[in-house]
């Protein structure tokens, strides 16, 4: 790393050193210290690295970020249809006035890290950061070192949580940066749905860095749906790191509606047999926006299945990136792994980079991957216009038909909420 890059990294990290990170002692603070030390020896992400080949990071690394502890006014938050638990983090800190947890149903615990009881701290000390100690990822390491607050969600054995849990990550304030950490544990035989919204109310630049760790036990089911709808000057880094035990099901839906710079990293380590892992996503950058989806599914044991389907619509001067990687290890015989990325590029100045990958070390598997990128079907637009439909509505109909099989994997209440943010 050059002297200029070293100075740039020092300047960037010094902004986060000024954040008032809570002190917990024990393994939490030890892992923080290890991450800070690791950052000293880590290169800045750049296009010279394969993981960042198509994703410019200068718009984040060169800014004078600060932690705005309080917003000038409380935002009016969008709500999921129906009854749900709501936990709100305003500029990375839990906001009691906007949250609505009440008395959770039997077998469910929801609370912010900043309000953890002494009896819960032992669990947090063991779990928090346990899955992200060796990612080698710069922005994940920044979160490891400097997170400020986040949600803890624990579902007891065999508990079936009926109401969805809505985590709202809201950023407000000029040059405001947040580092939020969420921890999820789904015990054996339990089931829960979680919706994460990433929102802001600014016309000025903001940055959110959110990492979610999830431990999914045997025969459990976890569904996470991310809705990203930040303003066009918002920078959003989001990572989900999941450990999946036998006979469990994990589904992660990533709906990127808006955002100036968005990077999604999803990694699922499938450490049990007879698991199902589903990753679905859609994105629609326009103008000069960038949306980058990186996924990893690592099959370690046999008799498992994974499905990935990501669809994008890229217009203007925007850039879309999809890099999905599936590992099938030597012991993961009888694995079925399917991966597909499809895109529509609306304008000549738009760019889409797609790289689905399979790395297979077992010989008794069914695996496939594919990628298609094309332009809008103008004949279909003409046909619809000839039936009295306006051009705007015709294009909207075709877009909804294109991404419909992604949205169909969302449950009805979440699908209605997600659709309210979509441009098309």
Describe this structure in words.
It is a single chain. The protein is an alpha/beta fold. 21% of the residues lie in helices and 39% in strands. It is built from eight helices and 19 strands. The strands form two sheets. It has a ten-stranded mixed sheet, with helices on one face. The longest helix has 17 residues. The model has no long low-confidence stretch (mean pLDDT 92).
Which tags fit this structure?
424 residues, alpha/beta, 19 strands, 39% strand
Q: Topology of this protein?
A:
Blueprint: H1 3-17, H2 26-40, H3 58-61, E1 85-90, E2 93-94, E3 108-112, H4 118-127, H5 138-146, E4 151-155, E5 165-171, E6 176-186, E7 191-200, E8 206-216, E9 221-229, E10 234-244, E11 249-258, E12 261-270, E13 276-283, E14 290-299, E15 305-314, E16 319-328, E17 336-345, E18 351-360, E19 366-374, H6 378-386, H7 391-407, H8 412-419
Parallel strand pairs: 1-5, 4-6, 5-7, 6-8, 7-9, 8-10, 9-11, 10-12, 11-13, 12-14, 13-15, 14-16, 15-17, 16-18, 17-19
Antiparallel strand pairs: 1-2, 3-4
Helix pairs in contact: 2-5, 6-7
Placed side by side, the strands forming the largest sheet appear as 2-1-5-7-9-11-13-15-17-19
**Rg from alpha-carbon coordinates:** 21 Å
Largest sheet, in brief, is: 10 strands, mixed
Please state the overall shape, judged from the principal axes of the Cα atoms.
Answer: globular
SSE ordering: HHHEEEHHEEEEEEEEEEEEEEEEHHH
Helix content: 10-25%
The average pLDDT value, as a whole number, equals 92
Spans where pLDDT lies below 50 across 5 or more residues = none
Structural class based on helices, strands and sheet pairing: alpha/beta
Beta-strand segment tally: 19
Distance between the termini: 43 Å
Provide the β-strand percentage band. 35-45%
Number of helices: 8
């Amino acid at each position: 790393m050059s002297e200029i890059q070293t100075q740039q990294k020092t300047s960037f990290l010094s902004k986060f050193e000024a954040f008032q990170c809570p002190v917990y002692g024990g393994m939490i603070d030890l892992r923080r210290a290890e991450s800070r030390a690791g950052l000293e020896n880590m290169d800045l992400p750049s296009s010279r690295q394969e993981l960042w080949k198509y994703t410019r990071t200068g718009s984040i690394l060169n800014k004078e970020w600060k932690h705005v502890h309080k917003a000038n006014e409380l935002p009016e938050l969008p709500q999921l249809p129906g009854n749900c638990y709501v936990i709100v983090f305003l500029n990375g800190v839990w906001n009691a006035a906007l949250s609505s947890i009440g008395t959770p149903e039997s077998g469910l615990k929801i609370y912010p890290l900043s309000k953890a009881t002494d009896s819960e701290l032992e669990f947090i000390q063991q779990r928090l950061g346990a899955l992200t100690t060796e990612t080698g990822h710069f922005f994940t390491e920044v979160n490891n070192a400097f997170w400020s607050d986040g949600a803890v969600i624990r579902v007891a054995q065999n508990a079936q949580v009926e109401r969805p849990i809505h985590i709202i990550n809201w950023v407000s304030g000029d040059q405001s940066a947040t580092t939020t950490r969420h921890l999820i544990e789904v015990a054996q035989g339990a089931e829960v749905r979680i919706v994460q919204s990433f929102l802001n109310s600014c016309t000025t630049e903001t940055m959110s860095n959110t990492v979610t760790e999830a431990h999914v036990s045997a025969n459990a089911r976890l569904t996470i749906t991310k809705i990203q709808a930040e303003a066009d000057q918002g920078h959003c880094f989001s990572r989900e790191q999941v450990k999946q035990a036998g006979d469990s099901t994990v589904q992660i839906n990533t709906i990127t509606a808006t955002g100036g710079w968005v990077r999604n990293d999803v990694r699922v380590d499938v450490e049990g047999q007879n698991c199902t892992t589903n990753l679905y996503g859609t994105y629609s950058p326009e103008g000069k926006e960038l949306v980058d989806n990186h996924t990893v599914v690592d099959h370690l044991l046999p008799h498992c299945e994974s499905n990935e389907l990501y669809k994008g619509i890229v217009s203007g001067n925007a850039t879309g990136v999809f890099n999905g990687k599936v590992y099938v290890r030597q012991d993961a015989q009888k694995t079925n792994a399917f991966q597909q990325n499809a895109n529509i590029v609306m304008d000549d100045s738009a760019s889409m980079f797609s790289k689905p990958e399979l790395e297979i070390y077992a010989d008794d598997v069914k695996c496939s991957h594919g990628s298609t990128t094309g332009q809008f079907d103008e004949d279909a637009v003409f046909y619809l216009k000839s039936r009295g439909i306006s051009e705007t509505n015709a294009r909207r109909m075709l877009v909804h038909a294109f991404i419909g099989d992604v949205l169909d994997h969302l449950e009805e209440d979440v699908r209605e909420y997600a659709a309210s943010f979509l441009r098309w």
